[in-house]
Every structure is written in structure tokens, then in C-alpha cells.
Description:
Glutaredoxin; 43% helix; 2 domains
Amino acid sequence: MNNNQTPHRLNIRMIISLILVVVAIGVWSLYLSKDDTPSAADNSRALIGGAFELTNHKNEMVSDKDFLGKYMIVYFGYTYCPDVCPMDLQIMTDSMHHLPQEIANKVTPVFVTIDPERDTVEVMAEYVQYFHEDLVGLTGTLEQINTIKKAYRVYAAKADETEDYLVDHTAYTYLMDTDGSLLKHFNHGEDPEQMASIMATLIK
């Protein structure tokens, strides 16, 4: 009787072992097929933003740490810009006014100059008055401005070397999360109501 049961027990063990092998292969295949590659949007969010130290339009030294805990909407431009910058800053202002007040209270609008040679603290203080009442103007040394430009992947270069030179630059508006990472960027000339609607869906 014992001799007859031995092959039967061996067969059961073989079947169980085979099932375990099949399950293990299935689990391993799922693991290998799992796509952990960051998307283009994930890469963009990781690349935009970073540490900086600048001077605000009230002549106070500030850094990226001073803005943690609040959302930022950030624009890079310069006060001598004849059209693009004032247009985008006005769009930023209008979009802030379209937000429900409880959401707008969570957002700090920021204007960073890319022309620190001309955009002194005094110049920035006068300029920001023409836009949103909470707009923070940031300037600094050329080295400090280059640091934040690099962190935000901003291109800017003088168009010529005349006294009244213009500056060629990217014209994005960045919505930054409370931890300083990118949530969304907006292109030049965005519709302010649409911009506000998108901001409202992203802000918690």
C-alpha cells in the first residue's frame, strides 16, 4: 500500500512545483514588462526649478526657501521690454484676478529680471506697481541671475550692444508647486481666463 502511494505523492509534488514555477515566471514577466521610464512631462517637471538667492523689489534678500509652502507663478523678462513682457505680466495679473480668492491667496506672482544691469531694485520697485498688487520683483547680480536662469532653463541674450539694447528671451510663465517643482508652463499670449481655469484645477 505504501509502495502504491509513493508515485501518487510524487505526482502531486511535481504538479505543485510546476504550478509554482508557472506563477513565478508570470510574476517575473509582469515585473520586467512594467514601464518605469519617466514621461516627457515628468522629465520637464524635474528639470525646471531649483535653488536661488536674489533681491526683491523691497531690497530684501530672498531665496527659493522663502517661497516654499506657497504656489508661485513666475515670469522671466525685463522692464525695458517694449511689448512681450508687459503683455505676459498683464495676462498673469488678469489670470490671478480670475481665480477664486481662496485660491489666489495661495499663489505668489513673481517677476524675475533677465537684465540686472538696468533692472535695479529701484527700477523693479516702480515697474511692479503697474501689475498685480502682490507681484514680487526679483533682481540681483549677473551671476545670481544666471543661476536662476539655468535652474529654470531660461534663454536670454542681448540682441546687440547699443545703449538701448533689447534682450531676446524665452517667454514662458511657470506655475510652481509648493515644493518648488514645476506644475505647468504657459506660453506667451495665453488667454487669462483659460490660464486661471487650469491653475485652479492644479492648485490644491
